[in-house]
Amino acid sequence: MCGIVGYCGDKLASEVLLSGLKRLEYRGYDSSGISVNSGNKLSIIKKTGKIKNLRDAVPENLPGHFGIGHTRWATHGGVTDINAHPHSDSSEKIAVVHNGIIENYTGLKEKLLREGYVFKSETDSEVLAHLISKFYEGDLESAVKSALSLVKGTYGIIVMHADKDNELIGARNGSPLVLGIGDDEMFLASDVSAILAYTKQVVYFEDGEVVKVTSKGFTTSDLKNNRVSKDMENISWELEEMEKGKFSTYMEKEIHEQVESIPRAMKGRINEDLATAVLGGLNMTGRELLDVERVKIIAAGTSYYAGQVASYIIESLARIPSSAELASEFRYRNPVVEKNTLYFAISQSGETIDTLFALREIKRKGGRVLGICNVVGSTIPRESDGGVYIHSGPEISVASTKAFTSQITALYLFAIHMARMRDMSQSSGAAFLKDLNIIPEAITDILNRKAELQKIAEKYAHYPNFLFLGRGINCPVAMEGALKLKEVSYIHAEGYSAAEIKHGPIALINEKTPSMFLVPDDHMREKIVSNMKEVKARNGKVLAIAVKGDKEVEDIADEVFYVSKTHENLYPYLMVVPLQLFSYFCAMELHRDVDQPRNLAKSVTVE
Ligand code: G6P
């Protein structure tokens, strides 16, 4: 979703801003813009479309050593140059970039219009520029604070004034903001990827904080002018991890990276002698864990399906009732937060607003929430009571792949830990961990045979509708498969329990609606095979992911891709990777923008 970046230092601000915006492209956007100081006036350049359009519009060597930039994902007002950020006040001395939504903007705008302020755009964000201008009497920081005290909603903002050489004001409430500290230069951004090329030293801000930045230093305070002291942190990601390397798209790269990212999620977390997992970040004593009577997982998108897989595994291994729920629904239904329920918030980005607000709702009601996140220092892990970082490395492709398998890995480890505290024997624990350890090998085998999936994808990419069908622990995997296909290829797909098709979806079956069946050799296999026959009997094309040696599936299905045999609870890994590749190849066949699909954003920071 929208990205923001700010710079002050010796470099040409336009270059730093454009390179930062390029790194923020992955978040999803439809227009972009920058503002730099050129003497005592601002040069503001904004363009719809890709960053390249903006770069073409920015004069080479545009003078100016401090400035702000933005990638916009439209919410209020269409995709136009004028609606793109930065927004300025009428004097064009003040410029603002904003992530989030000003919920009371209509009332504020009406009042400003009555007072004679003239608006250029249809956005909620422009209100901020005029409000700051209204309060400005030579001190930008206090004008920003006065303006923000009237605002309801979420924001991550950076503000500059043409007369305030070398000064940026940043503030956050619900949308992320990070400061990068260089040598006599400072950066502000919505996420570290925009500044990683320049510095690894960062400071993260909390909601309600305002930072005043110059090239030499910064001060942080709250809206009531209390000073806040901040700690510096180091980013562990390397710049190379953010490059595509030998792959043509990030999605392909990230699918392949799972062979390394799954072991990374387990690294240092297995105690082989005791056949259990060790998760120090949970911040819970053995006694507290024993008191857990229910596990509830809150998440959105792909993370939600990872949560559903995890809830099966926690219930099956640890025998603790467990379920996953969409964060967006959970937060608004006045949820009952039970004393002995342990909550998990899963989020790759650590910034998804629905998940974050659900977490806050649980904490407000006295519940304990653990985070399962990838981006270190992001808001959800910082606000959680503990948790597990999945250490997948940067996930740039909008469609999530490697985060899914690492999220389930973290929760498989949690399940093992709980199971071993309860009634799982040491030998069963050891056997499970042994099978888990060889999952990367089985994924390598899938990747080595990806050409088979490419062939199937090329044959079926032109079908308009798909069903993805699984049972048990692979039911959420089928839903994730359908989501992946929708996201990157724009083919309509529905994920369902194979058992449920008789209650509706079977009406869709005809020769133009193929069904992708997930057929592990578990206790549900026979039932799924019957469902396949039902589809075949109605002239539906049947595609299947099955286990090597299962010849019966080959007889029924039009296409089969085989995966290795594993523990029945570990099939989600081996089922999801072929589905990721299938979606990827369908999207390539249809010439889609695989890494930045239309209308989607990597990190959804508005409701
Ligand atoms: C967006 C992304 C999805 C992601 C979802 C949840 O919709 O496009 O890929 O699964 O947000 O994101 P999170 O960062 O919370 O896992």
What does this structure look like?
Strands 3-2-4-1-10-9-11-14 form an eight-stranded antiparallel beta sheet, covered by helices on one side. A six-stranded antiparallel beta sheet has the order 5-6-7-8-12-13, covered by helices on one side. Strands 18-17-19-20-21 form a five-stranded parallel beta sheet, with helices on both faces. The mean pLDDT is 95. The chain starts with a strand and ends in an 18-residue tail after the last helix. It has 20 helices and 26 strands. It folds into three domains: 3-235, Aminohydrolase, N-terminal nucleophile (Ntn) domain (Glutamine Phosphoribosylpyrophosphate, subunit 1, domain 1), CATH 3.60.20.10; 244-437, 3-Layer(aba) Sandwich (Rossmann fold), CATH 3.40.50; 442-592, Glucose-6-phosphate isomerase like protein, domain 1 (Rossmann fold). With 607 residues, it is of the alpha/beta class. α7 (258-266) runs parallel beside α13 (402-421) and α7 (258-266) runs antiparallel to α15. β2 and β3 (41-48) form a beta hairpin. The structure holds 6-O-phosphono-alpha-D-glucopyranose.
